[in-house]
Write a structure and sequence with these properties.
The chain is α+β, with helices and mostly antiparallel strands and 107 residues long. The chain has a two-stranded parallel ribbon with strand order 1-2. It has a two-stranded antiparallel sheet with strand order 3-4. A two-stranded antiparallel sheet has the order 5-6.
Length: 107
């Protein structure tokens, strides 16, 4: 999430709003939220993971990263599901996807 904060100006320039959510309780999620300028939700449950189609790790009762890029109308234009600490979207990748999509729409 810190990577998204570092590229906040660039994300703002392409019209991106960032939101995050965690299985953590409100106090722990608040610690993370204090380090970033975007909203951080808390208390994500197995039911939410199932609705998103995300991988839920039983051993630690956590949702693995599930990332979505949505257009202004709420349509998912890209997604990434992970089952571990790799293959997460980087802020720079989000900017590239947005720029690519915008360029395609201008053609």
């Amino acid at each position: 999430m810190v990577g998204f904060e570092k590229l906040k100006a660039e994300l703002d320039a392409v019209g991106v709003s960032v939101f995050a959510a965690s299985v953590d309780p409100v106090d722990k999620a608040g610690e993370v939220a204090a380090e970033v300028s975007f909203p951080v939700g808390y208390g994500v449950t197995r039911a939410v993971a199932d609705q998103l189609g995300s991988w839920w790790e039983e051993r630690r009762s956590i949702i693995q990263p599930s990332e979505f890029i949505m257009d202004a109308g709420g349509k998912i234009i890209a997604s990434s599901y992970s089952d571990g600490p790799i293959a997460r979207m980087e802020a720079s990748d989000v900017i590239k996807v947005i720029n690519f999509r915008e360029a395609q729409m201008r053609k």
